[in-house]
């Protein structure tokens, strides 16, 4: 029994971490954090069965385990591969992984429109971040892109299928979170698309969570469309006692001034809804779409956003400012006096202001400086005070 609870060790990009048995490579990498964590466009830890579709989280297994140290011949999806004791994984340290990820991103962008300037997801789009890291300036694709007409699939949600990457997250929300799923993937191959059943509309009370899980701008909030940019709004944590027992009632209000522009579920650093009491913090449509007044909520404070995000720019009072080290090194000398040469020059007198002289400066104006002993003390900050003392003695 003790062996079953024993943690196993895995090394990812030369960083070793201990995890529970059954942990996937992606989950282990998230424990390390930073650039070590592979990107994921389809995996969502709060949705059972997610992952294994987008292939952006491919990694190289250089050693399978301590018992069998042979490398795996092909790249594997980190969201679907469980770790073994002694496994060695390469992510950003592998050229094969970087080359494969660049190819996957190119494939995802084949049909994706270049409409980031008008997309409501801009600024918080995972595909946008991925394309900056692994995309190219041009495309090799020479055929016509597939396009779809925008469609309102419910009173609150608009589907822009042209942007969809078929991650299946919204379908899983309909199956696992909403009361009844009335949409899914129709057709196959390059004709596959998200759509609702004939004459059906998505109107269940938790359908708005489809917007939160969408990694791109395929599903957008109709009550927020084109009203504002997310980086112009301020995200605030808030809560209310929701009448729906399945709703956690804890949200993020996106405000500008006192006006609430939209309401979303709170998210963790990986873009997934936060968990409370061991359960995902899904919110109902009443909280999301109908409670758009600050008075409807108990506002807790500013939401903590990753500092690299454009949303968090200039939003925080406690900014991390660089410390001024020049004064410590120069014995108290201010940075603006770094070019002060009075303490080492034989011809400049710090007490003489050139602009106050009745005419051009002559050598006689600096005779007093010629008698100064310019021996520099060990502390450069004391040099100027030393010279002033010598000037006073000369004048006396």
Q: What are the SSEs and their pairings?
A:
Blueprint: E1 8-12, E2 15-19, H1 25-32, E3 58-63, E4 76-77, E5 87-90, H2 95-108, H3 126-134, E6 151-152, E7 157-159, H4 169-176, E8 183-186, E9 193-196, H5 209-213, E10 219-221, E11 234-239, E12 250-256, E13 259-265, E14 275-276, E15 279-280, H6 285-290, E16 298-302, H7 326-329, H8 367-370, H9 383-395
Parallel strand pairs: 1-5
Antiparallel strand pairs: 1-2, 3-4, 3-5, 6-7, 7-10, 8-9, 11-12, 11-16, 12-13, 14-15
Helix pairs in contact: 2-3
Helix content: 10-25%
> Quick one: CATH class of the largest domain?
Alpha Beta
The count of helical stretches stands at 9
The CATH topology name of the largest domain reads Alpha-Beta Plaits
Tell me the quaternary state.
single chain
Strand content range = 15-25%
Radius of gyration: 31 Å
- Biggest β-sheet strands, sense, barrel: 5 strands, mixed
List unreliable stretches of 5+ residues: 369-374
